[in-house]
Amino acid sequence: MTLAYVVTDRETDIAILKKLLPLELAESLTFYAAHGKYSARSAAGTLLSARMRPVALVLDADTENPDEVREKIELVNTMLYPASSPETPFKVFLATPSIASILSSPSGDQAASMETLDRLTPTQIQSLQRHSLIQQLIEFLSSLTQQMLHQPIRLIDTQVNSLL
What we know:
Mean pLDDT: 87
Number of helices: 7
Strand order of the largest sheet: 2-1-3-4
Order of helices and strands: EHHEHEHEHHH
Radius of gyration: 17 Å
Number of strands: 4
Low-confidence stretches: 152-158
Largest sheet: 4 strands, parallel
Distance between the termini: 32 Å
Strand content: 5-15%
């Protein structure tokens, strides 16, 4: 069963995230690469409303200005909020300036990013996993695991209370 969807705007971003997220967490996710930011936002909204599963939308900020990053997050949150529900959380993550920058690769050079990714040692992977974007993503996705564990208990409590 899919714990959550991770939506990005390009395939190389998915490859980076799959490499840097803990294996047991990555295996419980469904990754979706849209073609561009607008398509990624649209796909995230569709997944929220149609599949009713949590969504992590991970995009490039294309800036390092904290005010611009905050503004972009607020805008995307405003766009996705109508498609969500309290039972279907979502979170927007913006990489500054890009997801490829985690690898110190230029964001436009997908071949360089993939080559760098293929050459990473376990020690380098551990170091990159400490990047704030990866840590925030792990934290959000791990919290979903905890919610899923407690969900059956709430359902049983509700059923027991209805019988009383």
